[in-house]
Amino acid sequence: MDVFSGESLTCIRGDRVVFTNLNFSIEEGEVLNLQGPNGSGKSTLLRLMAGLISPLEGKLIWNGSEVQIQERDFCIYFHYVGHQDAIKNALTVEENLRFWSDLRSLGQNESMIKRALDTFSLTDLSSLPARFLSAGQRKRLNLTRLCTTTARLWILDEPANSLDKESSEILNDLIKVHQKDGGILAIATHDIVMPGNKILNITDFSDTKNFKDLNDE
Amino acid sequence: MAFRNGTDSWVVVMFFMIVVILFPLGVGPEPDILNKISSGVIWVAALLSAMLSMDRLFHVDYDDGSLELLVLHPQPLEFIVLAKVLAHWLTTGLPLIIVSPLLAIFLNMDISSYFVLIITLFLGTPTLSLIGSIGAALILGARRSGALLSLIILPLFIPVLIFGVSAVEASILGVSSKPQLLILGGLFLLSSALCPIASAASLRQAIE
Hints:
The complex is a heterodimer.
Chain A: E1 3-13, E2 16-27, E3 31-35, H1 42-49, E4 57-62, E5 65-66, H2 72-75, E6 78-81, H3 93-103, H4 110-119, H5 135-148, E7 153-157, H6 165-180, E8 184-188, E9 198-201, H7 211-216
Parallel strand pairs in A: 3-8, 3-9, 6-7, 7-8
Antiparallel strand pairs in A: 1-2, 1-4, 4-5
Chain B: H1 7-27, H2 31-54, H3 56-64, H4 66-71, H5 77-106, H6 111-138, H7 145-172, H8 178-207
């Protein structure tokens, strides 16, 4: 069984302590909802989970073994969706998706790509250069990558931003299917909270002391 | 891995040609003088045009978030850097080498020294791309990054420039230019081993 957890994580950005002594644990088929006001550190925690930044203290644990930051083996287990859509303007919608699946060496599976584009109803736009897409369409293209990945752990940073109602529901369905397949999810969100989700409020771990005080102790 | 608009490399090649063509106009059409300065002029122009395209190497990926995904890729980041540098060289370094015969004629260069120039460019321009990748990775997120980039990497280009020019000059004087070419080759090998590591490290810093 897959388990992803963090133990006594502390993170600082600049001089500010974003959170201290934060623990979390997500098991197979579970969703962890990160909540908190803007700027409270939801994105920071997700970036930390993805290994993009390293914690000052504490460790991340995947299936009982500690995750070394920058460890290559861990990268195949998760998929990270950040604020930015990572879409190349010069390439068409389909090429963007293909480049991604090639990069993750998932192969040129025609039916998979077609199905992925279909999920977010991007099939009609597939030959359009990505520079013509609207913000919502870009987000949808970014999220289609979820349909092509084999990752167990999804780390989603406000995935429903700039999505219309219909697409949010598609995303919800995707999340449910992934959950049913035994996937693990960590989501920062203001809206999609489904019954049964674990909720982690970042503000519970915030520390009003700044970094200098921490050093003095 | 090279996903870029074709216009970029055209701009670089045109810049290279215009800079070189400006010299005969500025210095005057004296064949002897032109022959003497030709290698220096072509090398300095190649250096500047490599600079011109360098800041685009990682910046677009940084802006649109692709860089995060590349860092999170199971492949070592060093290989990805190497692939990007190769793509950069193919789209900027190689076109420069292709147009350089034309410019050698403009500058009244001997055929024999021209061949040496081509060899130095083949060894030197990939080195420029490799060294430049460190600078391009370091400036991510900085304001006025273009100017900063030139300050960081132009000094590092100096060894390549010195040996590139002196190899051609040796052949103009009729001396063997083998030692200079060997050193250029050494610089290329050294930078291809070390630069990806340095660039990858500074890319990780930029992401944090």
